[in-house]
Design goal:
By secondary structure, this protein is α/β, with parallel strands linked by helices. The protein has two domains: about 120 residues, Probable inorganic polyphosphate/atp-NAD kinase, domain 1 (Rossmann fold, 3-Layer(aba) Sandwich), CATH 3.40.50.10330; about 130 residues, Probable inorganic polyphosphate/atp-NAD kinase, domain 2 (Tumour Suppressor Smad4). Helices cover about 20% and strands about 40% of the residues. The longest helix is centred in the N-terminal third of the chain and has 12 residues. The model has no long low-confidence stretch (mean pLDDT about 90).
């Protein structure tokens, strides 16, 4: 990464960020670096930019919050592949790289070029001419009070299997520890390229998860027998597709770059967040 001239902040709207923002501003001021925030959420005294302008100008994006804030920062930085440093505030986050007390040391490491950037894959969902990128998962969920989600999975242009379930989750390896994991899906290393398809509370004869290569074409067709569905992308409702709708999902292998300082591994973060313990000894 070249010299940093502008740092863009993405803040959790309900977390106390004053001290952390002050530390970043002090570090940046000593180095002639400009710090900017998003319109409507920037700390007092910081220039406010639109998401598009901040994404265009920032050389480094710093996420201040938890996993949801980090996902928002990744989406913002996606177009320009700007590196994102995650700073966890409050509750335990899986995606952020450092906790708030470690921020000063992390900024020094960035100063001294003692860091790496890790590519993160994304999922591009396209339907009816509209495209949205997810970094954790895409979920097709049945609406409360409606029938089951009936979804046909097409692989490489051919129908493979149909699910009847409360929901169907398509996750990146990063997102394998989120909604997919809660539905019984496996933990998938971010070193693996691909996508994971997991049914939630399936009522169909085939009730297993699928893992596809990032090069294989995936499409989901809403069957005529399906109840009303909502489509969530990283937890945000983006559509309510009609029966017969075909949704294409493709993998973007390096959709974002995350700053890594070598403090913890993926498995250490997963172990901590999911509260995993070893098997009991006899």
């Amino acid at each position: 990464m070249g010299a940093i001239k502008v740092v863009g902040l993405v803040q959790h709207p309900r977390r106390h960020c004053t001290e952390v923002v002050g530390a970043i501003a002090e570090w940046a001021g000593e180095r002639g670096i400009e710090v900017v925030g998003l319109t409507g959420e920037a700390a007092p005294g910081l220039p406010e930019l639109s998401a598009e302008e901040l994404a265009r100008r920032a050389d480094l994006v710093v996420s201040l919050g938890g996993d949801g804030t980090m996902l928002r920062a990744l989406r913002l930085a996606h177009e320009h592949r700007t590196p994102v440093l995650g700073v966890n505030l409050g509750r335990l986050g899986f995606l952020p790289e450092v906790d708030a007390p470690e921020l000063a040391e992390a900024l020094c490491a960035i100063d001294e070029d003692r860091f790496t950037t890790e590519a993160r894959s994304g999922l591009c969902i396209t339907s009816s001419g509209r495209s949205v990128v997810a970094f954790n998962d895409i979920a097709l969920l049945r609406s409360p009070g409606c029938g089951m989600a009936a979804i046909e999975v097409h692989i490489e242009g051919h129908p493979f299997v149909s699910y009847s379930a409360d929901a169907l989750v398509v996750a990146t390896p990063t997102g394998s520890t989120a909604y997919s994991f809660s539905a019984g899906g496996p933990i998938v290393s971010p070193q693996v390229g691909g996508l994971l398809i997991t049914p939630v509370a399936p009522h169909s004869a085939f009730n297993r998860a699928l893992f596809l290569s990032e090069r294989e074409q995936l499409a989901l067709r809403i069957l005529p027998s399906s109840g009303e569905l909502g489509v969530e992308v990283d937890g945000r409702l983006v559509a309510r597709p009609e029966p017969g709708t075909l949704i294409d999902i493709t993998v973007q292998p390096a959709a974002a770059r995350v700053v890594r300082l070598g403090r913890t591994t993926f498995y250490q973060r997963a172990q901590r967040k999911l509260r995993l313990t070893g098997s009991p000894t006899t």
